[in-house]
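Acid sugar phosphatase: structure, please.
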Amino acid sequence: MLSEKKLFLFDIDGTVALGDVLLPGAAEFFQEIKERGGQFVFITNNSTKSIADYIKKFRQMGVSTDPQNFVTASTASAIWLRKHAAGKSIYTLGTRSLIRELEGHGIRVTTDPDTQDISFVLVAYDSELTYKKLTDTCRILQTRSVTFLATNPDLVCPVPFGYVPDCGSICQMITNATGQVPHYIGKPSTDMVDIALRENPFSKEETVIVGDRFYTDIACGNASGVETVLVLTGEAKKTDTMIHTYTPTYIFDSIKEVKKAWKN
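Here you go.
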């Protein structure tokens, strides 16, 4: 039952916030979770911001958080790279914030396509994207023997006026040009859920994922054995045909309605 959940794994964009504005009821929900002895963790595929950036962002929106409240695609990517690419040079198409985050985890990052020992190419949602970055990435993938990685498969990112292209759409451009398809590290991979469960004293049965996308949030929950809540304030709609492929445990119009159902 939803009322028995203690650990809430929230997506951010389209789920609890649009741009730099919290959706109605979100701040109160976070507070009540803590008051009832639970915990909330944001598991976001958005790699444009570091955890420090997210803490600042939520503080500006009136919510106090700390590093334990976040597991991002940047975190998951750094853990994957430490395991599979230790000591290797990683050419990264991403924001400066992402690069700082990876370097903070000891990852050898380069943005110079002429670096001699590049072994991996990592593509992320990049709000600082340029055509040169795309061209350099395509050149590396077509002229070197490297592994193609991406932080997340999200096609769009919700913003106040609608949507903008996310990492999945950037990767589609690169795939169209090079014929190469990346290995995606973020949701629907279960890595971020596994990290959150390791770092908090709650069982899978006490945990729920709350998100706005079938093919990332709901698919992640299904793969990890955790119940899911789909909210309709982001990408997914109730009439979406994906509902037959990725079945959420619950569907609500908004985070405010989730809070009401949890309290009852």
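Notes: The two ends are 10 Å apart (CA to CA).
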